[in-house]
Amino acid sequence: MAKANKLFHLLLRFLAFGSTLCAAIVMATSHEKATVLNISFEAKYSNTPSFKFFFIGNAIGCIYSLLVLFIRSSGHSFGRVILALDMIVTMLLTSCVSAALAIAYVGKKGNSHAGWLPICGQVTEFCDHVTGALIAGFIGVIIYLLLLLSHSINPLLVSKA
Amino acid sequence: MAKANKLFHLLLRFLAFGSTLCAAIVMATSHEKATVLNISFEAKYSNTPSFKFFFIGNAIGCIYSLLVLFIRSSGHSFGRVILALDMIVTMLLTSCVSAALAIAYVGKKGNSHAGWLPICGQVTEFCDHVTGALIAGFIGVIIYLLLLLSHSINPLLVSKA
Description:
2 copies of one chain form a homodimer. Chain A is mostly helical. Chain A has one domain. Helices cover 73% and strands 7% of the residues of chain A. Chain A is built from 5 helices and 2 strands; from the N terminus they run H-E-E-H-H-H-H. The first copy, chain A, has helices at 2-28, 49-73, 79-109, 124-153, 156-160, and strands at 31-36, 39-44. A two-stranded antiparallel sheet of chain A has the order 1-2. Chain A starts with a helix and ends with a helix. Chain A binds chain B through residues 41, 43, 47-50, 80, 83-84, 87-88, 90-91, 94-103, 105-107, 111, 113-117, 119, 141, 145, 148-149, 152-153, 155, 158-159, and chain B through 41, 43, 47-50, 80, 83-84, 87-88, 90-91, 94-103, 105-107, 111, 113-117, 119, 141, 145, 148-149, 152-153, 155, 158-159.
């Protein structure tokens, strides 16, 4: 039972690593050149602070997941420290996905009250890329939530796993 | 020592209740009428989905904090359930504060690449209100992070407190 629990945790960590890596790469490669009314411009993630935050947050989440994978698979235990770091990384990922989603929503729908027009009609490929990154980032958040909830369901794992 | 821990937890819960209540009320009362180029308009929180999400998230956080305060002060214990709910509420608060902050940043600075102009020059009072709500919301997130970290430092509290 303890071995099955450990394997389940390692699988979740690996999935978290994969999804945060995907999210960071897909966001970092999202750019598109477009011409509107003879004015040429380039849409890229680094033009928007929230998208940069998304990339940095997911890159940190990815490196952290990889480090914990190595630590856990080598048999070492830093139970409470890892639980505390899990909480902080989950909040970081939640924060950067939410901020990016809020901006992506304005990019898609605009905000007529503030006079902000939607831009996805002009840069559809860029918007599709960002949507893909957001989906991967969201999956990462769900996996980290599952990891945290598994700690709360079985707190003994904290000191054993 | 156990009594001091319990009092510290109750104090944190009370502060979390106060900050989420303030955040929800200050956001809900943020509106301003302005006239630009003879066009009259009203800025209010309900015009922006992220600000509505901020209000709803903090209202849920506020009600939850109050409920846990009653449960804990009446001597009942639902240790693991409350730890799991604490994690979910912390993520909800982190998410709604981040989303609102991302939009408030565009309102303050604009985004020249997307053609979104800043609006805080026209509705300064509205922006000040939103800033106040964001600060209160951010304090709520920090308090919930402290509550979660105190669980991870002393996991025995989960089943005792």
